[in-house]
Task: inverse folding
């Protein structure tokens, strides 16, 4: 990501970086999965698979990026694409994650829309909520990490080793680093 001529970081840079870090972890998991493990049913009714959670994450990024295409300002997470191919084939999902990472990097060099409108269904008529790209990127970080934590739980019975930071929100990682500093200073 580039910085403006003033040398100050772009306002969205940190939010984009958090999303990119989560997506890099997700891609690492996808690169290690066989299609059989990716489709393995979990839960009493067998509704949960790694693939369904990954597809759900991708759907939300696609909804944001699709809403921004060609200068759009309307977002709708309710009417997502739900591409079942992404639930079945980890390599296809990994490629889509790579595409999303590139699109997020491109956002860093663009001027964000001043405001966005999020359609949120309540009752018969959806609400039109005012939001911003920054707010939606913050939402996507939390949403992605939430589903990655579930992925981590589902990966355990499959014997998949994940990094300790997998599915941990950046705020928690920062807290862990702050807590470790006094211990490191005592040992010095």
Result:
């Amino acid at each position: 990501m580039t910085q403006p001529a003033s040398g100050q970081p772009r306002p969205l840079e940190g939010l984009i970086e958090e999303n990119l870090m989560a997506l890099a972890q997700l891609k690492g998991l996808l690169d290690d999965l066989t299609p059989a493990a990716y489709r393995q049913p979990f839960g009493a009714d067998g509704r949960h698979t790694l693939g369904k959670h990954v597809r759900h994450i991708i759907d939300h990024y696609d909804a944001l990026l699709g809403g921004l295409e060609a200068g759009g300002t309307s977002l709708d997470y309710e009417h997502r694409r739900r591409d079942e191919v992404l639930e079945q084939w980890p390599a296809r999902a990994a490629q889509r994650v790579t595409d999303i990472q590139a699109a997020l990097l491109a956002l860093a060099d663009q001027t964000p829309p001043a405001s966005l409108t999020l359609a949120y269904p309540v009752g018969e008529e959806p609400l039109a909520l005012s939001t911003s790209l920054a707010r939606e990127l913050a939402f996507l970080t939390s949403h992605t990490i939430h589903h990655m934590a579930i992925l981590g739980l589902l990966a355990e019975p499959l014997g998949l080793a994940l990094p300790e930071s997998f599915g941990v929100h950046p705020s928690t990682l920062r807290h862990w680093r702050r807590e470790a500093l006094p211990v490191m200073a005592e040992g010095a």
